[in-house]
Amino acid sequence: MNNFSFRNPTRIHFGKGQIAKIREEIPADARVLITYGGGSIKKNGVLDQVHAALENITFFEFGGIEPNPHFETLMKAVELVKQEKITYLLAVGGGSVVDGTKFIAAAAEYPNDPVEMLPTKGAHIRSALPLGCVLTLPATGSEMNGNAVITRWETKDKTGIFSELIRPAFSVLDPETTYSLPPRQIGNGVVDAIVHIVEQYMTYPVNGKVQDYYAESLLKVLMEEGPKALQDPTNYDVRANIMWAATQALNGTLSLGVPGDWSIHAIGHQITALYGLDHAQTLAIVLPAVWQHKKEQKKAKLLQYASHVLGMTEGDDEQRATQAIEKTRAFFELMGVPTRFSAYGLDESVIPAVVAKLKQHGRLKLGEHGDITPDAVTELLRLAL
Amino acid sequence: MNNFSFRNPTRIHFGKGQIAKIREEIPADARVLITYGGGSIKKNGVLDQVHAALENITFFEFGGIEPNPHFETLMKAVELVKQEKITYLLAVGGGSVVDGTKFIAAAAEYPNDPVEMLPTKGAHIRSALPLGCVLTLPATGSEMNGNAVITRWETKDKTGIFSELIRPAFSVLDPETTYSLPPRQIGNGVVDAIVHIVEQYMTYPVNGKVQDYYAESLLKVLMEEGPKALQDPTNYDVRANIMWAATQALNGTLSLGVPGDWSIHAIGHQITALYGLDHAQTLAIVLPAVWQHKKEQKKAKLLQYASHVLGMTEGDDEQRATQAIEKTRAFFELMGVPTRFSAYGLDESVIPAVVAKLKQHGRLKLGEHGDITPDAVTELLRLAL
Hints:
alpha/beta; 6-stranded parallel β-sheet; two-stranded antiparallel sheet; globular
């Protein structure tokens, strides 16, 4: 096991009716900006619950934060923050709203043009407004970490930023708020959380047993509960298990002292930025290709996954490793997320475009060994056509 | 799954050489009191590493905190804190030193006689000195929670206290510091951590899958690695896995949204207070008795444990439940911790004494159903003779 340092001070309020806890978290004299996305929170009663919790607290609203939140949109919110002297941000929505709100929190305090924050991946963030979160879509884990992914629409660039300063002070996770999600978002969320886990797990063994077994635990939960969420959308325990698993998947616990891959995300981000595919769709396309391409390097962990998560006992090592990849692909398809470019009307012309974007961002050495070069990406993406 | 709120802001520095990180955590102008136990940290080089990390910081030392730390001893440290105007406490040792130091942190700021804190279980703690920790014995989980257990020697009372204010700001976990532990302390530590886990797991199912699978993960790690630590005391990865599992076992994650038992600890504490047995020894005696006595109520989880942790597939439900209890007992014995009163030279006369202590403390309704009455304790302890 490798050395690590770790701290995660976000407070979680989990369960039915917990939106009311916002009142305990936000100072009574705060000037709050509620941020949200396409407006589903107005239909499913979530915004009403938030308003009730903020009774007698001054608040404003900013809607329309899109999936893969755009720098250009978020800068409009920054203007509103400055104009109304906002002191607290409250993100109400899924990972895009939370990520976008993290960017707003830092950009509102950034002394220069906030576009500078993107190439530095947040390294130059020195202060940020406090923020809280009401999560309505379990997927990204953004509710309990300091990460955000921002898309600059003008240049079709999608960049991850990180700072301890943009970690939510608190997050409310009420599984009932997820009942009204369309199946596509349920499928996407489960796939996204699974790929977060395996980016921290499907590498090479360093005998980090707690981390490995925790990762396997979360994979089992998501693979057991995901299909049930599609079949029985108002089953509370199913939604609760998925929601808590997705948060745990990227709250920092799994990556402690073990290597990470993250090539699947790096490649996927370019596909979304270029072609607008859902984030999880890109991951579902890229994962089987990366695993197939790196099967020998990842074999020890593929076999551990085949045994501990998928319960496979038949066949030799080569067969089980291959089957583990194919069973993962089949699970994504079962969740309604196709795993090949062709299913999205895309062909081999995507490959040079994606590779060019990776080169532009200097992402020339991806994966846990740093050996997924642009040439390797070209080769592996052919497995995803 | 039940509702929960959760926050754990303790920072962990894990790994070889991480004692040096103390320097980043403690303010340069602090007046530090290093607290420790019997002095093993002077022999194994840990104290030297701490001194090096505190170079140019003013520090004092207070040794002699005993296992099951005594109120009477800790009050001497409180005097020293006041006399030397200490501003930061640094516990260097195992759970007893950490627990004792938590008490010192609160007692030093307590306006009345600190003996008052014990019957209130810490409810009246309003402030405490900041504290950090260098853990040298993985077992109690005290390094990442706000719990402490204090023994009042004069009255033979052992009381748990809790406050967010006595949670360590940081803890250093260097597995190499555990190499010099005697086998008895290794065995005790693994048993203690296992019992922490099952107090939060071996109850009744509420479909908290992440919590259940995490608990099973930690049980597997401890059962796989525990015997290796006895056989191969300087295997770094073995020590690292045990150390991180023991911390995870009681950092709050496992108990979220699920019922807890804690009868094993409640009964065990009285045995230690009365007869001076090691904490883990009392748990190893009481656990099989409680599980046997409550086999019907706990059967669903006993069978889940038999399957997921012990890999049992043979026999009917009754046989597997019984075997799961006996295999757990056998594991404790394998770790060198006997599981019956007779092995410690105690006989049935302990039973009325333990029951009287429980009554004195008002612990009349133990367990996840609150139905382990004094009569039930009398009955179940006969299974432990």
